[in-house]
């Protein structure tokens, strides 16, 4: 038969054989009735060698409820008795012996010309050849077709011959197409030493490696169930001791684990054996086993022998072992602690009482060295409750640095003012040391870290001018009293009333060593416009000091305050000439203005006069060209208009500029005469009166 024909035939079997299952419920099979009962078995007799003929025996025994019909007849859903009566008999509602015997031929005509179509199996992609086919039908009893209390079925025994291919492993394919015989379990028995290896449908296979059962009815789809068969191999063993040490501790538990990997169906046996000088001290059959050597009379330096064996269904074994030295001596350690202080430098800390005292601003330096008599590495670990993540780990030698500040229970800005002014207890932390050697022996030690008060008070001044807190928008003014409020300040541990204060203004002490109650609010007399330097200093009861220094820009007082800084001119102060004057005006008031330069009725254009700031006065230059029409002192004034009404908004400028009258011709002659007279006097003095007379 061709492969195409086989495929078509199997499809027809699938269609027809599933019909009874879908229609059976319409007849109402009682819940206490088992529709199918029986078994199937395939026994392979020969070694499954490559390219060999293999003999096998197939056995099937199946009983089917009469509620179900046969796919060999039409409409199997109506039940076997009605099928026979309707299609093989006279359809009179009653079965006679002749009608029943007629159905027997259908059971005897099973398709054993092909082991796959018969519902058995194929080997290495090829069907078995069948011989000596024995089929024993079990027919329904004669009687009314409505009497459905019986069963029908058959028993068959078939000799099979198969051919293996050249591969090492064998493949057995079991059909799943929906046939009736697939409703009973199929058991496959293999010759020793062959075993089940693998199947993608292993969930429906159980048993032991050389005899396993397939529950084909549990497979919901039409698909061959492929099974890989191979020669038994010893189980794979993966064993180890937890941890990577080269020795184990005498007084600590050591755990071993093993994983035996074999066929899906092979439940391997585990045997642990622990020995001391060939004397067995402990056995176990568990995958995990722990042993504490001291509980089994081991001593320091002894060797523990651990052996584990995995045995499969056939008795094949795999083994793992370890011999390891026992270390019963704990490591030793030394520790020293140093405080690195900004003010006091390096300070060695005495920890003989188990307390490490460290300033809140200091750096704690931790030096720890560890040693084991084995010469192997030691692990040093320190932990602290400073934070959940505070942990340092090193090997043999450790150097670590860390700050231990005052904790959240000290005074801080999160507290209200009254609470933060109270005294608080110092913060403590724990420091835990653990040193572990290679074998797992460990030593521990604990210290208390006491955080000393190492920080001065926190200085938080609020500064007011005219009862308004100074800011960029509200600066201090030269004519206003300044108030300093220190109420927000606090010390981390001390009561604020146990602190002392000094204030320096522009490098001069305003007050010194005053209590907080005396100076928590103090006033400063009005300051000149400009920048002024403030220094606030505070000490707590432990003489920890803090300094806050800052400058305050004091702006000039409001208004306009004009003065003349410089006067210059260009030209000759003589009647008939033009004289150009230059005047530099400064405003030391805090408001702007407009102004002009005037001489008599003659004035310049108005100019903008800037306001003064803390850095200096507002300065502007103005010019005026004056035609000189009369002799005498030049009159000059500066007048302005500001934002505020002022009584004096004009300033007379004393220039000391004298206007000379116009000289004319007479003045020229007198000038020449004076020059000649001066020359004559000079000659007489040089040569003497006598020579002059000669």
Summarize the structure in words:
11% of the residues lie in helices and 44% in strands. The protein is mainly β. It has 6 domains: 3-231, no CATH class; 236-327, Immunoglobulin-like, CATH 2.60.40; 334-452, Sandwich (Immunoglobulin-like); 462-555, Immunoglobulins (Immunoglobulin-like); 562-659, Immunoglobulin-like (Sandwich), CATH 2.60.40; 664-694. It has a 7-stranded mixed sheet with strand order 6-8-2-1-10-13-12. Mean pLDDT is 88; it is low at 1-27 and 665-672.
Report the portion of residues in β strands.
35-45%
Mean pLDDT score: 88
How many structural domains does the protein architecture include?
A: 6
What general form does the structure show? elongated
Short description:
This protein is mainly β and 694 residues long. It folds into six domains: 3-231, no CATH class; 236-327, Immunoglobulin-like; 334-452, Immunoglobulin-like, CATH 2.60.40; 462-555, Immunoglobulins (Immunoglobulin-like), CATH 2.60.40; 562-659, Immunoglobulin-like (Sandwich), CATH 2.60.40.10; 664-694.
Keywords:
694 residues; mainly beta; Immunoglobulin-like; 6 domains; seven-stranded mixed beta sheet; five-stranded antiparallel beta sheet; 50 strands
What does the secondary structure layout of this molecule look like, with pairings?
Elements (H helix, E strand, L loop, with lengths): L2 H15 L1 H6 L11 E9 L8 E13 L14 H9 L5 E2 L1 H12 L13 E2 L2 E2 L1 E10 L4 E2 L6 E13 L6 E5 L11 E4 L4 E5 L6 E4 L2 E4 L10 E7 L4 E6 L5 E3 L4 E8 L7 E8 L2 E6 L3 E4 L11 E9 L5 E11 L4 E10 L3 E4 L6 E5 L3 E9 L7 E6 L6 E5 L1 E7 L13 H4 L7 E9 L5 E11 L9 E4 L2 E2 L6 E2 L4 E4 L14 E6 L2 E8 H4 L1 E4 L5 E10 L5 E11 L6 E9 L7 E10 L5 E7 L2 E2 L3 E3 L8 E10 L4 E2 L3 E6 L7 E3 L5 E2 L4 H24 L1 H5 L1
Parallel strand pairs: 1-10, 16-22, 25-31, 34-40
Antiparallel strand pairs: 1-2, 2-8, 3-7, 4-5, 4-9, 6-8, 9-14, 10-13, 11-14, 12-13, 15-17, 17-20, 18-19, 18-21, 21-22, 23-24, 23-26, 26-29, 27-28, 27-30, 30-31, 32-33, 32-35, 35-38, 36-37, 36-39, 39-40, 41-42, 42-46, 43-44, 43-45, 43-48, 47-50, 48-49
């Amino acid at each position: 038969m061709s492969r195409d024909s086989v495929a078509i035939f199997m499809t027809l079997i699938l269609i027809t054989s599933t019909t009874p299952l879908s229609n059976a419920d319409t007849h109402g099979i009682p819940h206490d009735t088992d529709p199918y009962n029986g078994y199937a078995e395939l026994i392979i007799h020969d070694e499954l060698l490559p390219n060999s003929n293999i003999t096998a025996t197939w056995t099937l025994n199946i009983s089917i409820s009469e509620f179900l019909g046969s796919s060999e007849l039409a409409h199997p859903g109506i039940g076997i008795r009605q099928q026979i009566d309707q299609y093989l008999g006279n359809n009179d509602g009653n079965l006679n012996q002749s009608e029943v015997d007629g159905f027997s031929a259908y059971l005897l005509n099973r398709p054993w010309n092909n082991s796959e179509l018969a519902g058995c199996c194929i080997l290495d992609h090829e069907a078995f050849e069948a011989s000596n086919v024995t089929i024993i039908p079990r027919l329904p009893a004669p009687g009314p077709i409505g009497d459905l209390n019986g069963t029908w079925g058959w028993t068959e025994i078939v000799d099979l011959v198969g051919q293996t291919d050249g591969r090492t492993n064998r493949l057995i394919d079991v059909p799943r197409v929906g046939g009736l015989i697939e409703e009973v379990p199929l058991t496959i028995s293999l010759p020793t030493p062959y075993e089940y290896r693998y199947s993608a449908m292993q969930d429906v296979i159980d048993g032991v490696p050389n005899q396993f059962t397939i529950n084909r009815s549990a497979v919901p789809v039409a698909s061959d169930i492929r099974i890989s068969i191979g020669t038994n191999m010893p189980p794979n063993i993966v064993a180890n001791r937890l941890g990577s040490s080269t020795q184990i501790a005498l007084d600590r538990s050591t755990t071993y684990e093993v994983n035996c990997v074999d066929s899906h169906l092979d439940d391997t046996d585990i045997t642990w054996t622990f020995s001391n000088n060939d004397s067995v001290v402990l056995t176990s059959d568990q995958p995990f086993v722990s042993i504490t050597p001291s509980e089994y009379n081991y001593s320091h330096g002894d060797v523990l022998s651990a052996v584990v064996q995995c045995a499969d269904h056939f008795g094949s074994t795999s083994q793992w072992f370890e011999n390891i030295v026992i270390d019963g001596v704990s490591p030793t350690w030394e520790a020293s602690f140093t405080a690195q202080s900004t003010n006091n430098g390096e300070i060695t800390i005495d920890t003989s009482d188990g307390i490490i005292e460290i300033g809140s601003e200091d750096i704690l330096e931790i030096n720890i060295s560890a040693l084991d008599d084995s010469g192997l590495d030691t692990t040093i670990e320190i932990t602290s409750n400073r934070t959940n993540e505070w942990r340092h780990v090193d090997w043999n030698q450790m150097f670590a640095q860390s700050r231990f500040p005052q904790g959240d229970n000290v005074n801080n800005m999160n507290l209200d003012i009254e609470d933060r002014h109270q005294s608080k207890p110092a913060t403590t932390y724990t420091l835990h040391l653990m040193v572990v050697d290679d074998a797992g022996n460990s030593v521990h030690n604990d210290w208390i870290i006491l955080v000393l008060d190492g920080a001065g008070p926190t200085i938080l001044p609020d500064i007011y001018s005219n009862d308004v807190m100074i800011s960029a928008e509200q600066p201090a003014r030269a004519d206003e009293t300044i108030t300093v409020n220190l109420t927000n300040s606090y010390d981390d541990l001390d009561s604020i009333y146990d602190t002392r204060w000094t204030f320096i203004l522009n490098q001069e002490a305003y007050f010194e060593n005053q209590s907080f109650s005396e100076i928590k609010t103090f006033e400063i007399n009005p300051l000149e416009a400009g920048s002024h330097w403030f220094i606030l200093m505070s000490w707590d009861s432990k003489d920890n000091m803090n300094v806050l220094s800052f400058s305050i820009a004091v702006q000039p007082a409001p208004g306009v305050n004009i003065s003349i800084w410089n006067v210059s001119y260009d030209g000759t102060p003589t009647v008939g000439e033009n004289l150009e004057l230059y005047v530099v005006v400064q405003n030391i008031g805090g408001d702007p203005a407009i102004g002009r330069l005037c001489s008599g009725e003659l004035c310049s254009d108005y100019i903008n006069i800037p306001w003064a700031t803390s850095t200096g006065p507002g300065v502007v230059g103005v010019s005026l060209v004056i035609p000189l029409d009369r002799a005498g002192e030049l009159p000059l004034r500066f007048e302005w208009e500001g934002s505020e009404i002022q009584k004096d908004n004009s300033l007379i400028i004393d220039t000391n500029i004298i206007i000379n009258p116009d000289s004319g011709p007479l003045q020229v002659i007198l000038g020449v005469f004076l020059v000649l007279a001066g020359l004559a006097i000079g000659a007489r003095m040089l040569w003497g009166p006598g020579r002059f007379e000669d």
